[in-house]
From TrEMBL:
It is a multi-pass membrane protein. The keyword Lyase does not apply. This is Amino acid permease. Keywords: Membrane, Transmembrane, Transmembrane helix.
Length: 441
């Protein structure tokens, strides 16, 4: 009876799952990265292609993970997949990476970008950015102290709300813009660009977060069928939205203007199109978008901590695995995530965090992608089969290798620091196991 009281509730349906995927992915990247991707790609045509290539890599990754996840529909996602494929230690490191490095860093990064928008909207100074980010993360985290339906409902609301400014940019840009969306370039771009590969790498931050729905496998009503649908439809929808937004922006603004405006290009478009009120409304829409992203991550990451603590893999597992009696929410795990995210916000730059997040998680994505070949040898039947096998997994693997090499050359010091955070998990794992053995004696 006690065990049943400490279990998560299977209450998430199709629309909640889709909204969590879309809401978690669409955050700051599509709004803040347009100029930097244009600079790296060298022309508007190549920038649009970079978003498409990034989406294809992400979709290939999603299709590959969908087959794996359908065979392991449990709370924990990547942590569970890696453990079942490669053993307890590798699985622990995959979970440790997400709760110590990737999860807090991606939340701190998105909250940091969002606080810039909030400070600009209210005319506040830069000293308000960290307090605004902290207040928002605490508020969204507190909302997830309740039953998972509350957070899922917020995801549905914010996903619908964020589609309003997105639709405005797409429709107004494509139908009322007078620029040629293709083949725009300026002299400064060719001198400052980092190449098409760097542009694709930048788009992957915009697509990141798609796998987090897998962390909720233990709370879905029919995970074997629902999980693949949510991943595939969610990623495909985002790919289409991102491509159309980029075309809309290039239709309305000259490449030279986008290059000059940098991170403010999208806000400038709104002001030009709809006046000062339109600019403020778009800023509010972007803030809502990022709040939805934060909520999706705040729903999913504590479930990894919960799954690991439930197994006794973490210090203070008894507390970290606690769920509220009524709402079945992992409240202590959520508080733990809020604290780590706050530390990241104070000590790290959001832009650098965004790149290191992608690198860290792709180390384990790559291991999971190879896992599809292991499972195919073990099982002849499966709830979902990746289409165009083995081409799709090979695309996912090639994309993963590309991410790791690119970021290693781009920021070797940051890469070593985040790898260090992951490796620190090994002595903690063995210390916890020794303590468990002593208690058993």
């Amino acid at each position: 009876m006690e065990q049943n009281q400490n279990e998560l509730k299977r209450s998430l349906g199709f629309w909640s799952a889709i909204s969590i995927v879309v809401g978690t992915i669409i955050g700051s990247g599509i709004f803040f990265k347009q100029a930097s991707i244009l600079d790296s790609a060298g022309s508007s045509t190549m920038a649009i292609l970079a978003w498409i290539f990034g989406g294809i890599i992400t979709l290939a990754a999603g299709l590959t993970i969908a087959e794996i996840g359908a065979q392991m529909p449990y709370t924990g996602g990547l942590y569970v997949y890696i453990e079942n494929l490669y053993g307890r230690i590798c699985g622990f490191l995959a979970g440790w990476m997400q709760i110590i490095a990737y999860g807090p860093a991606i939340i701190a990064s998105v909250a940091g970008f969002m606080s810039i928008m909030m400070a600009n909207l209210f005319g506040l100074g830069t000293e308000w950015r960290i307090p605004l980010a902290l207040i928002t993360v605490i508020a969204i985290g507190a909302m997830n102290f309740f039953e998972n339906k509350v957070g899922a409902a917020f995801s549905v609301i914010t996903t619908i709300a964020k589609m309003i400014p997105i639709a405005a940019i797409i429709i107004f840009g494509i139908f009322w813009g007078h620029e040629d969306a293709l083949n725009q370039t300026v002299g400064e771009i060719s001198r400052s660009g980092g190449g098409f590969g760097v542009a694709v790498l930048a788009t992957l931050f915009g697509y990141d977060g798609w796998i987090l729905i897998a962390n909720l496998g233990g709370e879905m009503k029919n995970p074997q069928k629902l999980l693949p649908k949510a991943i595939i439809l969610g990623i495909s929808s985002v790919l289409l939205i991102y491509t159309l937004i980029t075309i809309g922006i290039f239709r309305f603004l000259p490449a030279a203007e986008i290059h000059r405006l940098g991170e403010n290009a999208t806000s400038y478009l709104a002001v030009k199109a709809f006046g000062n009120l339109g600019g403020k409304l778009l800023s509010i829409g972007i803030i809502i978008s990022m709040m939805g992203t934060l909520n999706g991550k705040m729903i999913t990451f504590p479930r990894i901590t919960y799954a690991m603590a439930k197994r006794g893999d973490l210090p203070f597992s008894k507390f970290l695995s606690y769920v509220t009696p009524k709402g079945k929410s992992p409240i202590i795990a959520t508080l733990f995530l809020i604290i780590l995210s706050a530390i990241m916000m104070v000590f790290f730059d959001p832009d650098k965090l965004s790149d290191l997040c992608v690198f860290t998680v792709y180390c384990f994505y790559l291991m999971a992608f190879f896992g599809i070949f292991i499972l195919r040898k073990k099982h002849s039947t499966r709830p979902f089969s990746t289409p165009l096998y083995p081409l799709v997994p090979f695309i996912a693997i090639a994309g993963g290798i590309f991410v790791l090499i690119s970021e290693l050359f781009n920021d070797p010091a940051g890469v070593l620091f985040f790898i260090g955070l992951v490796i620190v998990g090994l002595p903690i794992f063995y210390a916890v196991k020794r303590m468990d053995q002593k208690r058993m004696k």
